[in-house]
User: Fold this.
Amino acid sequence: MWYSIFKFEIQYRIKRPDTYVFFLFLFLFSIVGVDFIFQGSEMGLMKKNSPIVIAKTMGAITGFFMILASMIMGVSVLRDFEYHIESLMFTTPISKKDYLLGRFLGSFTVLLFAFTGILFGMILGEFMPWHHSEDLLAFNAMVYVKTFIMITLPTLFFGASLFFVTGALSRNLVVVYTQGIIVFVIFMLTKAITNEFWQAILDPFSLTTTTFVTKSWSAIEKSTQELPFIGALLYNKLFWFTLGIIAMMYGYKK
Assistant:
């Protein structure tokens, strides 16, 4: 039964123009993402497509547009109440598990599609004519893919879980939409933490984390080395992924 709900959610979303608007918006923004995020910054020997630059750019763009995640995830469970068919849904022989799992997976699939605009936009951005060859490393698509999986995906899962549960429990659009802003505020609050290790762990977008992981690297290493998915970076992602699981468990129980 969950698969039927999942399939319905996908079919509903692919007919909605906002699904493609979100993707296109992230895609176009990400084409100039590196230049926007690092505008006015002295990059030194770091190349514009070095792994650390890609990671920081993806993390920052994900943080800026978490409100889009709240719009996608929260609305899916509010739709039945918006159209006043909740009584029909709750009297059909659908288990709570199938209903919530189908809605969540369907919405999360759409969310991933929208945020792949960051991945494809940054890849295309590398070939834009305003970039000079001496400022770039040799093109490597796998660096973008691995960074998206490592940096953006866990954050999206946490945000998706939080926004989905918030929508299910509050049944209030205003509450759902403000959650994306609250997550960004949490990121700003982590800047007040004086312990560098815990600041790196508690950063939901991994900007401080990547700085902490590479603080002992030489300029050449920062320009060429891929980020190791160990230590603080691994703990950071496990922390936020676990919070997402806890949020889902709490929402299911309630």
The mean pLDDT is 86.
